[in-house]
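# nightly structure sweep
# worker-07 picked up a monomer target from the shared queue
# config: single-sequence mode, recycle default, output format = C-alpha cells
# input follows
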Amino acid sequence: MNFTRRNILIIILSVLLLVLLSLSVFLLLKKTSSTTSKVSSSGLPDLDETRWIENIVLGSKGTLYGISLEDYCYEENIIAPGETLSKLFNGRYDIDMGVVNTLVEKCKGKFNLKDLRAGNTFVAFFANQGDTTALSYLVYNKNRREYVTFSFGDSLSVNTTKKDIQMEECYTEGVIETTLSDALPDDGLSYALADIFQYTINFHMLQKGDSFKVLYQQMYIDTTRAGVGKVFGVKFTHNKKEYIAVRYKQGDDEFWNEKGENMRKSFLRSPLEFNARRTSKFGVRIHPIHHNRRMHNGVDYAAPIGTRVLSIADGRVTRAYWDTKGGGRTVWIKHSNGLESAYLHLSRFAVQTGSRVSRGQVIGYVGSSGASTGPHLDFRVKQNGKYINPEKLPMIPTTPILKANMPAFTAMRDDILSVMAEYESNYQQGK
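# output follows
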C-alpha cells in the first residue's frame, strides 16, 4: 500500500512540475512577442516603435556607427544641462585632461563646441578586453543627420559624418476634416502644397470636405522620416473645384496645371503663408471697436504676432508709417497697372519708404498696433484709387510652357498622372 501511495505522489508532483514548466515557457514567448517592432504597410517599422533607434546608423551586421560590436560594448546616454565636452569626458569617464585638451584642439574646423546641446544623445564604446571602463570611442549625435566620432585610441581624432538620406516614392490622399496639417502624413507636405497653390488657392479659406491627392518623395534617415523631397503631382479639390499641378522644370518655374499654364501668377493669393485664418471679409460690417455699421475696406487674417507678411507683387513702398486713423504700423506698396496694396496693424517693418520689393518678399510682421482687438493683419487693395475686394483680385498667369517644351511637358504630365491614377486605383481597392 505504501509503495502505491508513493507512486501516486510522484505522478502528481511530476504533473505539477510539467504544468509549471509549460506556463513559464508560455509567459516567456508572450513577453518576447510583445517587444517585437511593428511593421507598417510601407514595410518600415512604425515611427513610435523606432524612436529609440532614431539616431543609430544601420551598417553591416554587428556594427554601430561603423564600429564593430564584436570588439566593443556600448551604452547610450544624453547630454546633461550645462555639460561641456570637458565635463563629459573628464567628469563622466575620467579621461585625462591632457587628452581632453588635445581633442578640443582637434575639434577646430570640424565641430563647434557650442553645438554640444543638452538633451542630444551620444553613444560611448568600451573595449571588451580587460577593463571595460576604458572609453575607446564616443559618438555624439549633433542632429538627426550628422554625428561626431571622438576616438580615444593611440591616435586621438575627431571626425564628423553625415548619414545618407534615402528617398521613397509615396502617394497619399485624404479629405480635410479639421486642418490640412491634420489630414497629411507629414507637416512638410502642408507647406509644400501651400507653396505650390499660393497663387491659386487661398489656404486660409480651406473648408471641411476639401480633398487632396499627392505623389511625392518622402525622405528617410535610417528608418525615420526626415522631411519631404520633391512633389511630382497634386490634385487638390477646393470648394468642389479640382486644381491639378504637375512638376516640370522650365527656367525658375517648376509647377504647371494640366494645360501647361504656370502655377505662378502675377499676384499672390494671400500676403500670409500658412498659419493664419480669415476673421473678417471685405464689405459692410459691425466695427469690433466702435460697434457701428461701417465699410471694411480689406480682409482681416488672425495670425500670431511676428508672422511674416509678404508683398503680393513686385512694386515700390510708397509709405511705411504710423497710421493715426487706427491702422497703426502700415505699409503701402504701389504695383503696376494702377494697383496698390496695404498692410495694417504690423508689429514692425521690414522695409522703408522708397524700397523696391519683389513678389513674396517680407515687408513686415503681424502685430496688433493701432485700433486693434488682437494680433491680425488687415490687408487692403486699391485699383486706380478705389478699394476692391482682395479676394477677387484677378490672377494673371505668367509665362506658360514654351512651344518647344510642350512635347516634353506633355509626356511628363501624362506619366505623372498615369502613376497617380494607378495609386488611386490601388488605394480604392485597399479600402
